[in-house]
Amino acid sequence: MSDFGTERVPMMPPVPTAGIEAIGASTRGLFYDGGAEASCAIDLVSLVEQLPAYGIHVYPASAVELEDRLAATVPIATEKDETHILIQQSLWHELLDGGRAANRARATLAHELGHAILHVPILRRRMSLPNAETLLNRKMRRDEIPPYRDPEWQAWAFAGNFLAPRAAILASGENTVQALADRFEVSGSMMRSHLKRLKLLGRYE
After folding, report:
1. Is 8 helix (H, G, I), strand (E, B) or coil?
2. Cα–Cα distance measured from residue 34 to residue 36, given in angstroms and rounded to the nearest whole number
3. Which residue in 35, 77, 133, 191 is deepest, having the highest Cβ count within 10 Å?
4. pTM, whole model, 2 decimals?
5. Is the pLDDT of residue 137 over 70?
6. Helix (H, G, I), strand (E, B) or coil at 61
7. Which DSSP state fits 95?
8. Contact 148, 19 (CB under 8 A)
9. ∠ CA 109-111-115 to the nearest 5 degrees?
10. What is the pLDDT of residues 21-43, one digit of tens each?
């Protein structure tokens, strides 16, 4: 996870907001029987148990391993091309404990899942090219990249649509940002940003 501004990231192929919305909602449907229309929070502890079947493994990690990051997504070179998502131990325990205190952990895990689905395949392709080192080291400031090509923006957009798809929001019957946030077990600020991306914020203010 990263902050907007001067941090340097690899520019990704453009993905429109509608495309990420579809990917997030369909991914939720893949892991959750209720699909994208169910107006409730997805069980991310159960999700962690399902992910290895898709080559994605989630592990708690120490602050030393993650340095100043809350989490990281790492492509692993194996015969099956696995992906490891590392999440700070404190967040891992928050996720297991559940409740409102788990909101940050839930958002973090969904964000990293977005990296695993949207960006790891691209990074693997770049790693296989003759000029791999140049491609992998080519990074730009986030404030110089259009949002739809910013891997962090893309991953946050994925997270919002995975945790709270448009159809589920509209079917929820809720009428405030905080009520939606509580229903889908995310923070109020994350729900507000998500609704703004979906151009739905005006309905709930």
Report:
1. strand
2. 7
3. 191
4. 0.91
5. no
6. strand
7. H
8. no
9. 110
10. 999 999 998 888 776 778 899 99
